[in-house]
Amino acid sequence: MKQRVTVLETDLPYIRRGVEKIESSITWAVRIIIGAILAALVAFIVRGGLHIPPV
């Protein structure tokens, strides 16, 4: 049991680094998706997508 705990404790820094890299990648993916949605919305508005006809 002590040997298994020792092995797990030595692997812990590598696991933490891996999780941090995954979190960083997810953060950038979310930023890119939100940026793409905002860019599409601005393009829609610029092309006259929100044209309100006169009354």
Can you put this structure into words, describing what you see?
- With 55 residues, this protein is mainly α.
- The protein is 82% helix and 0% strand.
- It has one helix at 2-46.
- It is rod-shaped, with a radius of gyration of 24 Å.
- The termini are far apart.
Features:
single chain, 55 residues, mainly alpha, 1 helix, 82% helix
Quick recap:
The chain has 55 residues and is mostly helical. The protein has one helix at residues 2-46.
- End-to-end separation in angstroms reads 80 Å
The major pleated sheet works out as: none
Q: How many H/I helical runs?
A: 1
The overall average pLDDT, rounded, is 90
Number of domains: 1
Strand content: under 5%
What portion of residues is helical? over 70%
In total, the number of strands is: 0
Rg (CA only): 24 Å
What's the layout of helices and strands?
Blueprint (H helix, E strand, L loop, with lengths): L1 H45 L9
